[in-house]
Amino acid sequence: DIQMTQSPSSLSTFVGDRVTITCRASQSISSHLNWFQHKPGEAPKLLIYSASSLQSGVSSRFSGSGSGADFTLTISYLQPEDFATYFCQQSYTTPWTFGQGTKVEIK
Amino acid sequence: EVQLLESGGGLVQPGGSLRLSCAASGFTFRNYAVSWVRQAPGKGLEWVSSISGTGGSTYYADSVKGRFAISRDNSKNTLYLQMSSLRAGDTAIYYCAKDKVFDIWGQGTMVTVSS
Question: Which of B46, B47, B107 has its CB closest to that of A43?
């Protein structure tokens, strides 16, 4: 199975800051990497697919980059509604696997 | 509006069975693979199972293989997950999700396995 490792596991930051979350795969997954936002009690929301493509309807403050085994999610100018947990997921091969999540909290 | 709505969760004893349903609307259901993903309390997301648009191909995580069965009824726009031989470790919120990139998710249904 492909292991997905996210860092950091949590971070505390201010509204207006720029946030970077990294995700590393245990082997190359080309660009088959997706990013999700998850808030308690809500359905997870796809933000970025294929490493860098912005899902329709998602704010352009979210961007993704990377290929192979190393990927990054960047949130520019953090807004109050962005405080949530973020997961990466590889869609290269089954079993599809997720990172353990990064919780973004208000400082 | 594209929507998925899960149902069927509840409290079940270890060794018991439960069937989850996921009703789809707002898109041509038969054209898309759909999946089940779960989240145990305090844990991350875990893919459980997927099924192709026709239902001809199914995939399972090793943790549920032989105990869970995924199926779909394209005439009813509904996805199912038949769960048997349930264990405490299966306690989780179960979500259904559309397509290979999980672009749409339901709100989830809680399954608790406990005596």
Answer: B107
User: Could you write out the three-class secondary structure of A21-75?
Assistant: EEEEECCCCCCCEEEEEECCCCCCEEEEECCCEECCCCCCCEEEEEECCEEEEEE
User: Between chains, do B46 and A98 touch, taking CB under 8 Å as contact?
Assistant: yes
Q: Are A44 and B45 in contact (CB under 8 A)?
A: yes
Please list every residue in chain B whose beta carbon sits closer than 8 Å to the beta carbon of residue A4: none
pLDDT at A79: 95
A92 touches chain B (CB under 8 A): no
| % of chain B exceeding 90 in pLDDT | 97
Q: Mutation test of the interface with chain B: which of A42, A46, A56, choosing the one with the most B Cβ atoms within 10 A?
A: A46
Backbone torsion region of residue A69, taken as left when φ is above 0, otherwise alpha when ψ lies between -120 and 50, otherwise beta:
alpha
For B7-24, what is each residue's pLDDT tens digit?
A: 999 999 999 999 999 999
CB within 8 Å: A87 and B45: yes
